[in-house]
């Protein structure tokens, strides 16, 4: 019944609808049919007009609202990308002309946690981006600049298909187009997101899953002008809960949660986002040359298939143009301006400024006057120099921090540097020595950024600060410097100037030069007039040690760098010298061709570090001084010994800081941290030369003489491996108290641990596969006449073993320090006997077994020696047993 009624009702409704439709469409106001072709009545005309269409097609509810409706009562900040603000709402007005056009987008850290590498005043990532509209969404697209096509359409299409861009963010269009400007509004809250992946860095530091909490994140400020739009955000990161500590210690150390915030589950990170205009006409690019060091913009060029190497390297440099191109010396149209942040302590600002403007000496040599300018940010300035158009020097602090960093951001199309922000931690205050808690380790270096991305991170400030404190400790122990005197303050300011020169050099585009120190002779280092005029190194881009005299040696040159070196002038000339386009290639070739001059020796981080197998060039080092790095390391050991002797003789006095003696002990060990590697790499070492093929005829690899290799081995055996190099009085060690006001207190100092920490890198280097291969192959690099008397691998292993186990000859007592060294040597020999190290030559494995067999015989013979302590007899018995087990074991071959 209900179904039949429903059907009849539907039929009736349909009939009425059809009748009504027919009447309206075919009849006039009286209901009579209109004649064919007759003009419609006014009522009919009105019904068929726009109003009728609107009634027939209701407005799309998803269509953006009118521009004026969205920004009603909002305040505008006009500029490159205009900003509109109303209460807590922020919109970006994206101009139509900006769509699909390249611009620079940067993210810099203005506030952070303050520990484990997560600090304020740090430059973040930068991308060349474009706004792209897709339907009713605006995408922020990071353009792929790593792979570049040629000018033809086929090449562009091929590269575009092969390599993808990246989507950084997207947001719905918030308004219809402006009726005049044709721009649209976008809700800026897409910036309240983890665009730079900071949560990954947080997880790496604390091993906790921190997430961005958009609901409690906000915008703090916005600034815009014709070239930039910058927005400062306050991003909230949190985690729901902290895990309970393990019941038993984990075999893999687990970092603790953040200790610098009130609640480790929640903290804020400040990020300054900038949209910056790129030059309409890219700067003319300048090709890099490997004979000297500049940071580069690198990409793969698919414009042709004739080049054997498609990689292209543009020098990163600022755009400099003379106001008067015809003048020999002219001011630039736009100088390179560095803003001193208002948080730099007033007492250090003069030193910072001096470090910046010192570079004008190099620019004057190539025709620029006042090319580099320092400006002080006013206390009431309305801009944040973390934005993308203020190069800056910023002073920051942290709970465990100790470094400076000098990164820059460049236009990928040309290498033109657009922005740079030097961050310097507060490591030069005398109280910074409190960061060094015990046993030669600095808490500030655990978990810091990985250096370097070498074009960004730089340890120089931290290391220079430690060098400074060591020098002050030595001079104070000699009675030549009062830490509270004006002379000490001048000393600190000189180090700050040195460090700022170094970091500004990075932001001008210069890489490290770790061979520059070898261009100054030891005699010149003792000449005050020479070091004042030329510095103590060939470049401020080296990590330069302090020029301290030995005890009883007459003081001579300045203790640290005060001016640019010859290499610095050369590197600036190559990057910035004005050259006519038609002459540029020939002129650059001529400039780079000066690389054969001794004063212009160059080696970068890769030369000093050497990758997995270690550096092979004994002249490429950090924190050496003078033309003989081996002699410098011998001098450095003498200085540390002197410091230890003086601090032990001084004893403790009323009013001393409880940690003073402990810091001085650690300072002496810290100065030796590079000694084992730098000395051991003489063995099998090769001096490298950066000539281009066919330019000079010099050998690219020049083997270290056998005499120098033997001298390095002798220094290790007589200095580093000798017990009397590290002799401390019991009353001194028992006086090294902790700070009892702290809950987490230092343990008693373990001198054996400190000494073994120095000795094991030397053992690792001498027993490595890389050293074995180079020593075995070294004769191949020498003419037949020079192969007589060459250092052999058999001699290396025999010398090392004899020095480490010298007490076995004659059955002498073995001290605890020597027993520790012998265990470390035996541990490495055992490992090499039972498992072949990757890359270890077969001849090296044979020699290791040969000498291990002889060591076993020596141990067996010494085990019967009379008069030995129980400790020595037990050590010999245990060593013999362990070595025999390794000799009997089957080799596990990789």
Automatic annotation (TrEMBL):
Tagged with keyword Hydrolase: yes
Domain called DUF5118: residue spans: 64-111
Domain named DUF5117: residues: 127-323
Domain EcxA zinc-binding: 486-809
PANTHER family in alphabetical order: PEPTIDASE M1A AND M12B, ZINC DEPENDENT METALLOPROTEASE DOMAIN LIPOPROTEIN
Signal peptide range: 1-26
Lineage of the species this protein comes from: Bacteria, Pseudomonadati, Pseudomonadota, Betaproteobacteria, Burkholderiales
CDD domains named in the record: ZnMc_MMP_like_2
A family per Pfam: DUF5118
Entry keyword set: Hydrolase, Metalloprotease, Protease, Signal
Record protein name field: Zinc-dependent metalloprotease
